[in-house]
């Protein structure tokens, strides 16, 4: 069927309108649909319709009864709320990953097919003070050399791994309090590392 | 200096270009969407200062520009050449970009993430591009601490990029394969192999130019090497199938293929007015004709360069006054007449 507006391209969008109980059907091509005004649904036909919005839909549909509590979770660093995240599919700062970890890890796992990174790690971890004069970057190896995780924090790493396993178990058993305790411990350990 | 898209890579006909993109963020700043204008400005300035000698990594000359100082038309050109994506091009808060002279490498500062490292090249050179991106990544990391997490890897604004922060893609010319009934099904199936395939030019189900981009779907839980292997494997498979079907078509309908290539050359070389869609279709048919050895040009010429050249912003840039729709089509035909080399008889 051809698009009823341009009558040139194949119609691939069916738009059903119900007005005062009267149902009318329209058939448009993607281009014409983009040019027409469908009120709040217009965004769907936008050329720049971000995959992210679709993703938000997927992240938002689960477990509606828990939603209200979840929406109140706010990242203390950047003030992004869980609601903001569901709306934009976008985090506000690196800390958001830790703050929303319990809420999103399962979704990220579904989306990415995995929830743990296996690729490259940063070679350098400069302390913030050292970077202030990045233009005059120090060549002093002791100050700027690769501070790859050393032996001292291997223990901490191991502890984190154990805690993460416990956290996962607690989540599976829906013991959220235990999970929260594990999460906080992990956070403290990570800061130490 | 020749831009990357002006070069010709005859190694694998059908593999038009390849790209590796890494996104990274500074540990001590919130992500760009939460940074105020003032903080963005301060951060972008700091990052620019820290990276102003970035050329020492690869010996290339880099040019730096603040995004808001780039004219709208030039931004559109950068968009057509894939240095910027649509989100970054439309961004209003302070951002900047380092671009190498050959436009092969670029680093966008404060786009969707604090750093967007991108390497482009003609042909399929994913491995080399990754090595170059890796070096630029280390150079930046030496100066700025990254937001990194043991579990989620490199932390990014969108969870779709977290982990490696890497997108590897290859653009393929699939003129015969894409005509088949099974092609749409194959596109849908691609996600099972961890890859995405999408048309480069055209809207909706239409595709002008038969160019398709293959890229990795996932960024978390796979190593950079695995991502490259996956994209390479899918690309090789698609190209092998394209070659096979093309050979069968040439055997069965050789005259039609030959006629199509010569007709396309004739139209592109002599037309007085060309719409973007028809020009892309003829260029694609000419590309097939050259690859099949049906037709030879007097001088080597990258057809992909012509495909980029006939895009609206680039044609507008070549003109001294704003072009209307008809003028744009005339400018497109004029450009092609001038740029397309003579044919070897």
Task: Put the structure in a nutshell.
The complex is a heterodimer of chains A (193) and B (345). Chain A is mainly alpha-helical and 193 residues long. Chain A has helices at residues 30-35, 42-45, 51-60, 64-71, 82-88, 94-99, 101-112, 128-131, 141-144, 154-172, 176-192; strands at 13-19, 22-28.
Question: What is the strand and helix layout of this fold?
Answer:
The complex is a heterodimer of chains A (193) and B (345).
Chain A: E1 13-19, E2 22-28, H1 30-35, H2 42-45, H3 51-60, H4 64-71, H5 82-88, H6 94-99, H7 101-112, H8 128-131, H9 141-144, H10 154-172, H11 176-192
Antiparallel strand pairs in A: 1-2
Helix pairs in contact in A: 3-5, 10-11
Chain B: E1 15-24, H1 37-50, H2 55-58, E2 62-66, H3 72-80, H4 86-89, E3 96-100, E4 105-109, E5 115-122, H5 126-143, E6 148-149, E7 153-154, E8 166-173, H6 183-189, E9 195-199, E10 211-216, H7 224-270, H8 276-291, H9 303-309, H10 312-318, H11 325-339
Antiparallel strand pairs in B: 1-5, 1-8, 2-3, 3-4, 4-5, 6-7, 8-10, 9-10
Walk me through the structure.
The complex is a heterodimer of chains A (193) and B (345). Chain A is mainly alpha-helical and 193 residues long. Chain A is 50% helix and 7% strand. Chain A has helices spanning 30-35, 42-45, 51-60, 64-71, 82-88, 94-99, 101-112, 128-131, 141-144, 154-172, 176-192; strands at residues 13-19, 22-28. In chain A, strands 1-2 form a two-stranded antiparallel ribbon. Chain A is elongated and about 70 Å long. Chain B has 345 residues and is of the alpha+beta class. In chain B, strands 2-3-4-5-1-8-10-9 form an eight-stranded antiparallel β-sheet. In chain B, strand 6 (148-149) and strand 7 (153-154) form a beta hairpin. The longest helix of chain B is centred in the C-terminal third of the chain and has 47 residues, at 224-270. The mean pLDDT of chain B is 94. The chains are: A mainly alpha (193), B alpha+beta (345). At the A-B interface, helix 3, helix 6, helix 7 and helix 10 of A face helix 1, helix 5, strand 6 and strand 7 of B.
């Amino acid at each position: 069927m051809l698009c009823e507006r341009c009558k040139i391209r194949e119609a691939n969008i069916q738009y059903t309108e119900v007005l005062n109980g009267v149902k009318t059907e329209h058939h448009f091509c993607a281009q014409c649909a983009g040019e027409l005004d469908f009120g709040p649904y217009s965004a769907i036909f936008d050329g720049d319709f971000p995959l992210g919005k679709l993703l938000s839909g997927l992240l938002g549909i689960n477990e509606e009864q828990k939603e209200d509590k979840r929406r109140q979770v706010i990242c203390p660093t950047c003030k992004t709320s869980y609601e903001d995240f569901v709306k934009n599919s976008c985090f506000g700062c690196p800390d958001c990953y830790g703050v929303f970890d319990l809420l999103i890890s399962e979704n990220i796992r579904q989306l990415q097919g995995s929830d743990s990174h296996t690729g490259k790690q940063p070679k350098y971890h400069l302390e913030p003070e050292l970077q202030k004069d990045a233009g005059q970057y120090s060549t002093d190896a002791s100050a700027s050399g690769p501070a790859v995780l050393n032996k001292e924090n291997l223990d901490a790493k191991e502890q984190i791994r154990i805690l993460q396993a416990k956290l996962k178990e607690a989540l599976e058993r829906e013991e959220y309090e235990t999970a929260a305790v594990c999460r906080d411990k992990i956070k403290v350990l990570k800061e130490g590392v | 200096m020749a831009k990357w898209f002006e070069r010709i890579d005859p190694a694998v006909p059908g593999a038009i270009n390849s790209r590796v993109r890494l996104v990274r963020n500074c540990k001590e700043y919130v992500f760009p969407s939460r940074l105020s204008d003032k903080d963005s400005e301060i951060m972008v300035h700091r990052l620019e200062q820290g990276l102003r000698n970035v050329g020492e990594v690869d010996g290339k000359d880099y040019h730096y520009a603040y995004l808001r100082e780039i004219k709208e038309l030039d931004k559109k050109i950068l968009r057509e050449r894939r240095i910027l994506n649509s989100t970054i091009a439309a961004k209003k808060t302070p951002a900047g970009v380092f671009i190498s002279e050959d436009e092969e490498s670029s680093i966008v500062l404060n786009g969707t993430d604090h750093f967007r490292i991108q390497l482009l090249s003609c042909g399929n050179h994913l491995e080399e591009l990754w090595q170059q991106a890796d070096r630029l990544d280390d150079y930046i990391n030496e100066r700025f601490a990254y937001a990194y997490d043991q579990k989620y890897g490199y932390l990014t604004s969108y969870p779709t990029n977290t982990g490696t922060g890497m997108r590897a893609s290859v653009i393929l010319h699939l003129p015969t394969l894409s005509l088949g009934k099974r092609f749409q099904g194959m596109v849908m199936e691609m996600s099972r192999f961890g890859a995405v395939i999408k048309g480069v030019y055209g809207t909706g189900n239409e595709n002008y130019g038969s160019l398709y981009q293959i890229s990795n779907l996932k960024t978390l839980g796979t190593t950079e090497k695995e991502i490259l292997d996956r994209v390479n494997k899918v690309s090789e498979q698609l190209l092998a199938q394209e070659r096979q079907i093309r050979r069968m078509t040439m055997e069965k309908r050789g005259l039609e293929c030959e006629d199509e290539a010569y007709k396309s050359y004739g139209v592109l070389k002599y037309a007085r007015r060309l719409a973007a869609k028809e020009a892309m279709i003829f260029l694609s048919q000419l590309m097939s004709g050259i690859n099949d050895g049906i037709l030879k040009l007097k001088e080597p010429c990258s057809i992909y360069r012509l495909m980029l050249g006939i895009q609206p912003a680039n044609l507008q840039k070549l003109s001294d006054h704003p072009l209307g729709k008809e003028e744009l089509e005339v400018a497109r035909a004029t450009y092609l007449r001038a740029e397309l080399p003579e044919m070897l008889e």
